User: Fold this.
Amino acid sequence: MGALELKGITKRFGATEVIKGVDLRVEDGEFCVFVGPSGCGKSTLLRIIAGLEDASAGDILLDGVRVNDVAPARRELAMVFQSYALYPHLTVRDNMGLALKQAGIGKAEIRAATDKAAQMLALEPLMDRRPAELSGGQRQRVAIGRAIVRTPKLFLFDEPLSNLDAALRVATRIEIARLHRDLGATMIYVTHDQVEAMTLADRIVVLRAGKVEQTGRPMDLYNDPDNLFVAGFIGSPQMNFLNAPALSAPGATLGVRPEHLQVSRSAGAIEGQVSHVEKLGGETLAYVKSALHGLLTLRLFGEHDFIMGETLYLSPEPQRQFHFDAEGLRLRIV
Amino acid sequence: MAQGRPVRWHIAVFLAPAVAVYTALMIIPLFGTLAQSLFNLEAGARVFVGLGNFRRLFGEALWSDAFWNALGNNLWFFLIHMLVQNPIGIALAALLSSPKLRMAAVYRTAIFVPTILSFVIVGFVWKLILSPIWGIAPGMLDAVGLKSLFAPWLGKEEYALTALALVSVWQFVGIPMMLIYAALLSIPDEVLEAAEMDGITGWSQFWKIKLPLILPAIGIISILTFVGNFNAFDLIYVAQGALAGPNYATDILGTFLYRTFFGFQLQTGDPYMGSAIAGAMFGIILIGVCLYLFGIQTRLRRYQF
Assistant:
């Protein structure tokens, strides 16, 4: 009870087509993350699912029922907005209970539902405050609580963490993951942050310019990207793209992740000079400038010392190479 | 502190021009008027009578009949604005802020234009429109078969004040509309979308979400209306003259003050009683504004989005 299917969803604003035919199935109980750079249409897609925008073409099916013409509130889904979008004039309790009140549910039941959600999110001491008296993280929890109270078939999150500071972002991320386990509900989550996508998702949908580039489990996307875009988007720091002909490798581009470069001071496939080093304690990132391949990122475990301008030789690990053709499509060479 | 801060002369210097102008034009005349209301002429000499002028104004039939009549009319004038102008202003703003409305800018401008017209033009034009002899109102009503409804509204005691109040509403409805429109636009789209997701749409969205969020703006409009109405004078003067006819039916505090202070036709001017009326008007507005500030404003929450 919470499976979503999109069939050929297209969205046009005037002459511009922002969603170019998306087909997608989100299984019941799945945590699905839409990720992509800004302007890729991920938020628009979410808003189409929510019913805040109409699809120009295509069908939206919830549990097999077409809901294109069903009002947002009747689709039995709840949305958490980037700006929280709490009702400023209502207390936390009333914010969470308003949808139920509107649906004509009894006071005692509303109270029970809001109390339960408050307990899940540790909001009990805040129930009589107004949004202006809450911190950003608390507001976000209230916004999530408002969604939980409605016991929807589907939760929609529109970049819910982007207004929070880094520490709070990690804490809230963990909280959302826990909620997903506890509620077992289907969730669709939009973000431009691939770390959020990797850590939360059962399945990631990578979007670019209104099209699905690849769909899959986080590690599948990481270890087996279909194209240059997905390879570059998933994983941080970004995958290195090397000039394949210069290494007499197949295809136009050779991709290798920063942690899959072997480094030597004497010999290797690629020669370059250290241009910058970032020591993060647990790992060291070295940026190596190579004449043939541009700036490459090298990721080493632990602490390492490099001298600025020092010449290094890098070699891609043979089992960890990705080959792409001139169009950016993956060449799967066994 | 041992050293102490240097005297910050620049604050006084920069404030001085504004304070000087405001004092010369507002504060001195105000206190001069209030002081003058405590004096009167007796046997050709100016003598201090304390609150004697106010006693006459509120208690002596010759003065008090006119005063209470003017105050009552003024309250009615204010009531019409509150009950007609402001609700219509809110409704227009709600319509204007609807994204489905086309040519919103045209309506907005058209409705706001009368506000910038002179009272003299508005009063005169409406006098012409409503005139039973050469006005177009009887003809227009006739065209839709409602001529029997027509009455010389400005000439009948029972209608004249209401008619003028409605003319004033017509002129100024653009101001509450604009203020509410701005307040409505400041409500973030996401809040309204959240309401939509919660099933709160249409009218219930207006009552439950938008109206509470524009209450502070409505409060401001109410107090502006109150101050404006109790200071009103021009429209009545233009349409009905200083005698505020018919038979003082449209006399409000402003016209009463004008007649008393400057004199009109057979009535000679009396600056002392005039000052007493001005003092009473000042008191009424002061009490009204204080009631609003301490009784209502403190209870209105302002929301930051």
User: Anything to note?
Assistant: Chain B has a mean pLDDT of 91. The first strand of chain B starts at residue 39 and ends at 42.
